[in-house]
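FIELD: query
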Amino acid sequence: MDRVGESPLPLDGRPEPKLTVSHRLARAATRVLILALALAGGASGFAADARFDVMLGDEIEADIDALAVYAYRLPLVAGTSLDLELEAESSEGDDSDDGDAAGKSSGPAPALALLDPGGVQLAAAADGRRRIRTTVTETGTYVVEVRAGSFSGSFSLEIDGELPRSVGGQVDTSGSTADAHLDAPVGASVRIDVRRVSGDSPQILAVRDGTGRDIGFTVKRSSASRVLTRPVPVTAPGGLTVVVGGSGTYDVRGRLESDDDDLPEGDDDRDERRIVVTLAPGADAAAIAAQLGYRLVRVEDGIAVFETPVGREGLEDEDARRAGDTVPEVLGAEVDARLQTPEGLQSNGVVLGSSLGRTDFGGQAALDTIRATRARRKATGRGIVVAVVDTGIDAAHPLFAGRLAPGYDFVGNDADPAEETNGIDDDLDGDVDEGYGHGTFVAGLVLAVAPDATILPVRVLDTDAVGTVSRVAAGIRYAVEQGVDVINLSLGARVRSEVLRGEVRRALSRGIKVVAATGNRADVARIDFPAGLANVVAVSALDARLGRADFANAGAPTTMAAPGTDLIGPYPGGTYAVWSGTSFSAALGTGAIALLVERRPRLRPAQIVKRLKRASRTLPRRIPTARRAGLGGGRLDLARLVR
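FIELD: result
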C-alpha cells in the first residue's frame, strides 16, 4: 500500500513522479490493493509508466513528462457517482487550462480517461475538457489515466464521488438461513436493514467481513417485521455478508455511510522487507508466500506478514502491489509500517526521582486539575478491564498488586508482557532503550484515575518504544478477544494503515472504547494515526498553565485535553518517575472512561466521545487563542463526567 504523502514506487522501476496526496475526510472510502488487474495495453491502447492506488477523496499533485501515462487504480462499488477533475500547468509556468497558453511551450494539456475493471475505456476528457462525471455500474477496480501526450509539466487531479445510498436485495431462507452480500468499500459503515416480505420474523444471525471473520453488530430496532442495526464498519475488502435466519423471504439492505476519519498525510517508517497481507477466506498463506518467493513470518485470523527477498529493501510498496496483483487470494497488502510512542520524538525523556513515592503519585497536581478525588466518590473503575497496548509492564511494581490480568508479548511472542531492555539503539536515534518503562507509566496513570480497574498488559513495542502495524493490529485483536472494556493506544504514526484501521473499527463495533494520543509533533492542524479515526477518543496534552503543551498535536478530531507535563507515575523497579507527553494525557483519559463505563455500561463509543466533549471545561480566556484552539471540548473534568 502506498505511503500517504510520499511518492509510491512505480511497478516498472522507472523514476517516480513527485506526488503528494491530501484527503477530503467527509468522503473516506477505501484504500486497498486489489485483485489481479492488467493495466498495460487493453482497450485504451496506452501503457502506464507509473501506477498508484488511490481512493475517493484523494487530491493528487504530480509532475509528468511528455508521452508518459500515469494510472491511478480506484476501487469502487456499483452505484458510486464519480467526479474527476484535472488541472495542468506546463513546465514553463503556462496555465494549460488556458487555451491560448496551452500550446505556447509544452503542447496541449494532458488528457484524462476512465477505464472499467476490464480495461475498457468508459470516458475521456481532452481538448479543453478536463472533467469526467459518471455513475459506475459494477463493483471492481477502475483505472483513472492521466495521459501526457506532448505535454510536460505539473497537474492536479481531484478524485471525488458519492457512495450509493443503498445496496442489497432479497433472499429466501427456505426454512433455514441465507447469506446476503452487501457491496461496500473499506472505510465505509453500513446500517443493515432486514425487512420481512413473507414468512417468520427476520433475524440477523451474524455479519461477516470479506475475510470471513464474524464482526460485531448492534441491533438498534427490532420488531416482528424488521431488524435494523447500528452502523457496522467495513474493515476488510469484499464488503459484508449478512447471515439471515427465519423461514421466509426477506429484503436485506445496507445504507452506506462514509466514516469521517482524519487520515494522516505524512511520511512513514517501515519494517524493511516486511508487508502485511489480508487474505481471502480459506487462503493458504504458506502457499501464497511460496508462489511470490516471500517468506511467511506469521499468519493469524486472515492477516499474514511476509518477508520479501534480501536486496528488496526500500521496495516494500512495489512488493505489496505485486502480491495484490498476482494472487487473487490476496485481498489487500501494505507495508508493515512502524509506529512509536509520541515521547520517542521528544528531547525530554523520563526523569527518575529517587525521592518520589506513592504519596507523590496519588497527590500530584494533575489529579486535582481533573477533579479526580471528587469523581472517585461515585466510581472507581471497579469491574472495568483496560488493555494497555504498549511496551509491556513491570508486574512486580507494588502499585499493580491485584490489578493485573494475564497479558501477552507480541514482540517476544510469549505470555510474559514484561518491560525489557537490550542495551542496543535499535532505532538508531542515539538513545538506548528509551521506551523502557513507558507501558508501566501509562498503566499507572490509568489506575491513578480508576484505582479499581484491571489492567491487561499487551506488549507490542520494543525497548525503544517502536512497533509495527502488524504487531499493534495483533495486540488490538488480542485485547478484543479477551473482552476488554477500553483499549489505550499511547502510540501513533503519520501513516495510513487499512489493517490497523480495520482492527480499531472492529473493536469499536463490539462496543469497546478506544483511546489514542494525538502525538507530540507540535502540529496544531493534524493529529497522529489512529487518534484521528471516528469515535476514537483522541487526547491532547495541557501544560501547567492549562494551555496546550508546546509539544502536543491538536486539531479538529481531538476529543479533549488532559494534563501532560511533569506527571508522576510508576517506573520499573518499584520506583516512580516524572514524564511528559500526550501518551500520559491519553492514560488519564482512559481512566476517565473506565469511571464512566462503570457508571453507564451501555454507552457506545460514539456516545462516550460526545459525553467527554460535553463534560470538558472550556479553557481559561487568559490562555492565548493559539494555546486553546484544536483541543476539542477543552480540559477533562472527571467530576462533571461521572455526576
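FIELD: remark
Residues 1-44, 94-105 have pLDDT under 50 and may be disordered.
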